[in-house]
Amino acid sequence: MAQDTLFRRITDYAHRADPYPLYAELRRAKVARQEDGSYLVGAYHEITALLHDPRISSDTRERTDPEGPFPQDSSLPPSFIGLDDPEHDRLRRLAMRPFGPPHTPGRVDALHGDITAIARELVAGLRHKDRIDLVDDFAYPLPVTVICRLLGVPHEDVPRIHAWTTTVITSLDISPGEDPARRREAALAARAEMAHYLGELAGKRRGHPTGDMLSALVNDPGPEGALTPLELMISSVLLLIAGHETTVNLITNGMLTLLRHPEALALLRDRPELMPAAVEELLRYEPPVHMLPQRTPLVDIEIAGAVIPRGVPLILVLASGNRDPLRFEDPDRFDPERPDNRHLGFGSGIHSCFGAPLARIETQIALTELLHGLGPLRLAEDPPPYRSSPVLRGPRHLLIERVDGG
Amino acid sequence: MSGEPRGGRIVVVGASLAGLRAAETLREKGFAGELTIVGDEALPPYDRPPLSKQVLLGRVRARDVGLPRRRAVDARWRLGTPAAGLDTAGKRVLLAGGEKLPYDRLLIATGTRARPWPNPGEAALDGVLTLRTADDASRLAGLLDAGPRRVLVIGAGFTGSEIASACRERGLEVTVAERGPAPLVGALGGTLGALAAAQQRAHGVDLRCGVTVTSLRGDGGRFAGAELSDGSRVDAEVAVVALGAVRNTEWLAGSGLAAGPRGVACDAGCRAFDMYGIVTDDIFVAGDVARFPHPLFEYQMLSLEHWGNAVAQAEVAAHNMVSAGPDRRPHLAVPAFWSSQFGLNIKSVGVPTFSDQVVIVQGSPQERRLVAVYGYRGRVTAAVSVNRAKWLEHYQSLIESGAPFPPGPGAADGPGPPLSPVPSAVPDPAVLSHGPSVALTGHLPDRRLAVVHHQDG
Predict the structure, then answer these.
(1) To bridge B19 with a disulfide, which of A41, A336, B109, B324 should be the other Cys (CB 3.0-4.6 Å)?
(2) How far apart are the first and last CA of chain B?
(3) Homologous superfamily, domain B336-426
(4) Homologous superfamily of B9-113+246-327 in CATH?
(5) Chain B: residue whose CA lies nearest to A351
(6) Candidate from A54, A58, A89 with C-beta closest to B410
(7) What is the ipTM of this complex?
(8) How far is residue B282's CA from residue B60's CA, in Å, rounded to a whole number?
(9) Which regions of B220-276 does DSSP assign to beta strands (E)?
(10) What are the tens digits of pLDDT across the range B63-117?
(11) Are B369 and B431 in contact (CB under 8 A)?
């Protein structure tokens, strides 16, 4: 089949459960120009070269046709995920100040106990159920509770956060041919409401710190000064959404993968110390973010014998790079003890996942508690129903049954 | 190669980073014979970078920096026993106590030691020390704990600068004396040297460049101060001599190997050369003590005092020790190192001293955040980031592919005037207080960098 319909086929919901054969096709093409003028790259070494290339912009305003796929929200400035250095670097650094090293090295580690307690409580609630929907009953509530606690969002507001997030995320869906205007408008409205909500919350914390990140952001500016109120609103929307949405998929994909590989599941039950490496392999094998659709070359870029023209949408298919046989031996095998596993599950380069340390420990704890807190399990449905997004890919539900006698 | 590649006797001389990683790799690759590891220090292998950073800040104790083990090595450890000689014909390593260790294959990984203060009487003063070993670090940390009124650091290479940084972080007064025009200039050239000088002064260091320390004064056997070549005096209670490193090759005198003050010469596969330039097949070299040809730098012989090089070269050497001809691999890793000092995270790829020009492609010295790219005769040979390390992989690929210098503009550069390269201003190592941590060990020992410019065509 022609490469120029690859993106159409990848985004087709029919291939959501198993896009990997299409990715293999993409890797053979190295660089695949699509009928709408965008370019797809799916080979590991080419993706990493482009992720580290300062001639590639993350700002979609650099596109020749800014109204093409993934148009920019014009009502609010982009968050740092959609900006280039040095502005990206400044905003990310200020947001990192209360989250990680060098200023706050202990923040994520300190959450270990909380995350374990939340996970145990959720697992306890599953014990009396014969049929579990892992997404609704566990993989969603855990990270959303953690990120709200971390940022300082009251737990009773979680339903509002959930509704806003879903609306924003839905607008990331790509259904070529469909007019996305309506979904976009709803998403813009949701993002704006969320921004105002978080801005108001941060305002209340000013002078009344409660130990969370919003409090630190407004009360403890570094020598470079604080984020402006608008920057704070936009950055905290990003942290809140990215801080749980992707982890839901990682935990769910993780459990799905382990239930499909009983030998790996048994190994991890016996040897819990292998869990960190197993989570890295999950990030390679079934990553929560399948592609980065926001890149744009600032000049014509020569790569793998092709030229990607300046100003076109450039889509880097991370999940395809993760299965590249030129980088990973036997890439379609799930191997929780895989050595030399420099996967693209968190991206790479300056935009590499801000919350990676949190996602790692949340998933390690989540899977450990699920494996040890429940008896033998099996999938009630395989493949499960997927969410519509080909970008943030994961099951919408994951029905699991307890195995009798377990 | 003598004997079965995966059997026989292997002796590793040197029990630090390169020696340990080589031993682990030998076992990893299936070496099933007898393995002996000889080390002059009594301690099992430990990590040196923290010694001039966390240990001096009191965050880690010097005895808690043991290197993590990748796997069991099942070796006979001869620690606290320096090697004293090598009989290549009889294939035996002579130990200091007189014992002879026979080998089928030998790895030389004896590294370097701190260059001592040239006047032994002054060097023996209480309060005068070098920093290379865990014992040194422990002693220095103890001296700093006592709260000296002033510390004198002699030499502003990476080690000296990191020590000065730790002193300032602990609130101690510190004077740094450097014969060259700026700190770090020997490794990074003039542009970043100027940034390092400004940063040291902004952090309250009494930085004296273009001077040498002519003598150390004692008072009742205790160090009390120093005289400088400009006629000034510094009163201090501690003097740290940071004059660079000396390669541990004396034990190879008379062995017939191409070993000398610049290291032990070897080929790209880590096999040692003998004094006639003939490659041996049973003696390998890795780590700081090695000098090896690198294709990215016109096959100049490089000596690198880099953590990453010790690991990568040890792995290649070990692989080649247990592999026959066509399965052997070259050591082609792009040199890289890092340093943290005065709030700056400095990372380097390539060989900045192998350059004639430098250009700042991202950020600026004023922001204390930049990427500088180095070029030699129109191609990229190195890049150094300050507080901006995530970009380095891109520049590494430019080095590896011999990309044109200066590089084109990018998204991260921000709007600004076009790039304007300036001379990289890497001084001849002879003008520095400290030795270079990367030496291009070309044909003319006293004009190592000049040789670069004379090799046209």
Answers:
(1) B109
(2) 37
(3) FAD/NAD-linked reductase, C-terminal dimerisation domain (3.30.390.30)
(4) FAD/NAD(P)-binding domain (3.50.50.60)
(5) B390
(6) A54
(7) 0.81
(8) 40
(9) 222-228, 233-235, 238-241, 245-247, 259-260, 263-265, 271-273
(10) 999 999 999 999 999 999 999 999 999 999 999 999 999 999 999 999 999 999 9
(11) no
